[in-house]
Structures are given as structure tokens and as C-alpha cells.
Design brief:
By secondary structure, the protein is of the alpha+beta class. Helices cover 49% and strands 17% of the residues. It is elongated. The two termini are 58 Å apart. 12% of the residues are buried.
Length: 450
């Protein structure tokens, strides 16, 4: 057996696999002997079928199977031994016929195309500069967080007069053109939260109203879109377009959020007993938690920016014709040329990032060891417990849970992807030049969304 490599260009080559009769004759004969022992052919006892009859009936199929095995084994052995870095797998050459006869088998030659993985350089170094945007954790942000916590642990109390952030409970009644109750009109109890109404004029109009007071009110002005409006009026969303704006709203209750006091009781609800014992300590803890929380977003934004830069500036040429044929031949379901063309650019973009990431990991000896994956999974689990204010279990239990979680293929893939992204981020942070910038929360959020 012999393999000849013919270079087409820097990205493509042809591998010709030459198989002599001595390479397959014994394998084919042994396979046919196995068939002979088990074949059930009328007129012959099992194991006593003439070899010639078995060869006539199964010879070509067995020969094809053995040639296929020999070819595949030799191809991948050759690729491994010669350190060929290829994309996909070898595929039969489109315009080459098989050399050799299955009717009178002797020597055979099969031709395969391969596409080389492109050689390229990464355009980032210590001279590459990227913004490292952080949230400015100032007093206003801390105050907002404290207000949210006090509201979350506060309680609803009844009020006689409407305030700007109160919740109104009442009933909508549909009116006719004359301002009277409409016969068979919509009548439905609803809740209006003034805090979430964007129209400040409406908030001003409702402010100061009393329990049992009635007022003309278009429900569209106090709802968030058709779905919310339909729910508020107890109708199907399809009916929303047909209703008028003539409605009366009668206030039956006014509920106000009484904020929780900043005291030991609240501190112990938020943290472990004794961790925070004063308002000053609460502010310091919130500032630290916010910085820690936003640091993840900061890192993700940096990774996103470097990813965009690398995808834009890294020049990679692909053996496109080969890849299109490989996609078509390797797809489990039939795929048309039009379908391949439509999705091909997205496929190349995905492949490009895969090659960039692989090069970064290989060139910098970045690895994901089994112990690292387990430790990272334990960190994720501990973080989940902390999110709900629950102490993490003992290390042995965490380890057992992590190992069990990683046995689930889908869960494991997600964890590996997260850890790989973290290692990429660490590489970017240690390689490029970072320009730290503190931004107001709203500006940071807008940038993160962008």
C-alpha cells in the first residue's frame, strides 16, 4: 500500500491511495469464510456452502467493505504521521474515477481531496490597546441599591391619598359616547402601579386622588402594550384594537410600599448574622458587591471588543470549494447548493473564530484540565447558593454534585464553554494594553447592550 500526496495549492491537496492485491486478499478471504460458516442458502447445510458460491454472492460487497476500511485507516494514519493540519475530513475527489476492477480485482487506486487548515498570525500584542470600561460605583448608585433592598423587604400598607409610587386597585368600566355606562360594556378589576407609568402627566393626574373616587381614564395610558392592556381589561389581545378610550376607573384601594428600616433585622435578612451591623458597613458591602458584579460585565465587554477586532483584522483564507463539498457530503440530511451558499458565510465566520481560539490556546499552552473543570463547576454551584442566601455545602458534597453535573453532556459543554471563555478573557487581559475608564451606570449599560 502506498499514498502519494499531490499539492494543488497552499490550501488544497490530493491524496492518492494505492492498494495492492496483497493488501486485501487475505482480509477478504477471511471475511468470506465467516459468511460461509453462518450463511443460510437453500440446499446446503450451514457451514457447508461452497466457497465459490459465497464468493459469487458476497464477494464484491466484502471487497468494497475491506477496501473502504483499508483506505480510511491508511488515510488517517498518513495524516497523523505527517502532521497534516486539515479541515474536516478527506473526501473523494470529484473528477477522479476509481482505478481498478471489482469484477477482476487486482490493484486499486482511490483519490481524495483534503483542505489544509490555513496558517495565519493574530493581530494583537502588548501594543494593542482596548478600553476597559468599569461602572462608577458612586453614592447615587449605592443609594438606589439600598432603596431597592428596602423596598424588596418592605410591606404594603393602605393609604387614603394616592402618592407618586403607589399602587391603585380598582375597576374599569367602559363608557358610551355620552359618558354613561355602556350596555354590555367591559367591566373588570385592575391594578395600576404608578411607579411604572412613563407618562408623567397621567401620574400627576392620579396623584392626590382618594379611595372611592371616580375618574375618566383611558386604560392605554396606564398599560404597557397590547398584552398588558388585554390583561388589565380581561379581554383577548385580538380585541384590543376595537376598544375605545372611554373608560371610568373607580379607586377601591390605595396601597403604598412602606420601606424596611435600616436596622439589624434587615441586615440579617440580607446577609449572614454579624456580617453587616451598621449602615456604614452596609454601604461598604454594597459598594464591594456592585464592583464585583460589574467586573464580570467589564470582562465580557472587553472579550466582545477583542473578538470583534480579531474577526475583523485577522486575515484567513479558506479552501472554500473543498469546504462546500465537504459540508454537502458530511451532512446527515440532504442539503442543496442554494442552502450551502445561503449559510456558508455564517459557517466561515464560526470556523474562523474556532481557528483563532484554537491558535490562542495552542500557542500559549492554555489547557482545560479535569481538575480545573471540577473546581470551576464547584465555584458556579457555590455562586448559585450564595445568590439565594444559602451557605454552600461541604466541599465533598460540592465535589460530588459537580462530578454528577459534568456527566450530563449538555451541562458539561456549557461549563467547558464558560471556562474556555474565562481563560480567553484572562489571556486578553494579560496580553493587550488596557485603558481603564469609569462610566456612569446608565452609560455603561448602554455600552454593554450595544
Amino acid at each position: 500500500m502506498n499514498i502519494i500526496r499531490e499539492e494543488v495549492d497552499a490550501l488544497n491537496a490530493v491524496l492518492k491511495v494505492k492498494i495492492n492485491s496483497e493488501d486485501y486478499q487475505i482480509k477478504v478471504k477471511n471475511a468470506l469464510e465467516k459468511y460461509r460458516k453462518t450463511a443460510k442458502i437453500p440446499g446446503f447445510r450451514p457451514g457447508h456452502v461452497p466457497f465459490g458460491l459465497i464468493q459469487k454472492q458476497y464477494g464484491k460487497a466484502v471487497l468494497a467493505e475491506e477496501l473502504n476500511k483499508l483506505t480510511n485507516d491508511s488515510l488517517y494514519a498518513y495524516i497523523s504521521e505527517n502532521n497534516l493540519n486539515i479541515l474536516g475530513n478527506p473526501i473523494p475527489k470529484a473528477d477522479a474515477e476509481v482505478v481498478g476492477s471489482f469484477d477482476q480485482p487486482n490493484d486499486f487506486e482511490f483519490s481524495f481531496e483534503i483542505g489544509y487548515s490555513p496558517i495565519f498570525e493574530l493581530p494583537i500584542s502588548s501594543k494593542s490597546s482596548f478600553d476597559y470600561n468599569k461602572v462608577k460605583v458612586d453614592n447615587s448608585l449605592i443609594e438606589k441599591q439600598i432603596e431597592d433592598l428596602r423596598r424588596r423587604y418592605g410591606k404594603l400598607v393602605s393609604s387614603e391619598l394616592v402618592g407618586e409610587k403607589d399602587m391603585l386597585i380598582g375597576k374599569f368600566n367602559e363608557l358610551d359616547e355620552n359618558g354613561n355606562l355602556k350596555e354590555n360594556g367591559i367591566e373588570h378589576s385592575a391594578t395600576i402601579s404608578l411607579e411604572f407609568i412613563d407618562d408623567k402627566e397621567i401620574v400627576k393626574q392620579l396623584n392626590g386622588k382618594k379611595v372611592s373616587e371616580e375618574l375618566d381614564l383611558d386604560p392605554r395610558l396606564v398599560s404597557k402594550g397590547d398584552k398588558d392592556l388585554a390583561s388589565m381589561l380581561g379581554i383577548d389581545e385580538q380585541q384590543v384594537a376595537e376598544i375605545s378610550k372611554n373608560f371610568k376607573f373607580t379607586i377601591s384601594e390605595i396601597k403604598r410600599m412602606e420601606m424596611a428600616d435600616l436596622n439589624e433585622d434587615l441586615f440579617n435578612k440580607l446577609f449572614l448574622p454579624g456580617e453587616v451591623t451598621s449602615e456604614t458597613a452596609l454601604r461598604e458591602r454594597i459598594a464591594g458587591d456592585l464592583e464585583k458584579m460589574f467586573s464580570g460585565d467589564t470582562d465580557r465587554m472587553l472579550t466582545r471588543d477583542v473578538y470583534t477586532y480579531l474577526m475583523d483584522k485577522t486575515n484567513i483564507e479558506f479552501p472554500e470549494a473543498f469546504l462546500k463539498r465537504w459540508i454537502k457530503l458530511s451532512n446527515e440530511k440532504p442539503v442543496t447548493e442554494d442552502e450551502i451558499e445561503r449559510d456558508f458565510n455564517n459557517y466561515l465566520q464560526s470556523l474562523k473564530w474556532q481557528l483563532i481560539q484554537t491558535k490562542i490556546f495552542k500557542d500559549n499552552n492554555i489547557q482545560l484540565t479535569n481538575q480545573e473543570v471540577i473546581d470551576y463547576t464547584k465555584e458556579l454551584l457555590a455562586g448559585n447558593y450564595a445568590q439565594y442566601g444559602i451557605p454552600a455545602p461541604e466541599d465533598s458534597e460540592l465535589t460530588e454534585t459537580a462530578v454528577r453535573l459534568l456527566k450530563n453532556k449538555e451541562q458539561a459543554n456549557g461549563i467547558y464553554d464558560k471556562l474556555a471563555e474565562q481563560k480567553l478573557t484572562d489571556y486578553f487581559k494579560s496580553t493587550v494594553s488596557l485603558k481603564s475608564k469609569e462610566l456612569p451606570y446608565d452609560d455603561f449599560l448602554a455600552l454593554a447592550k450595544g
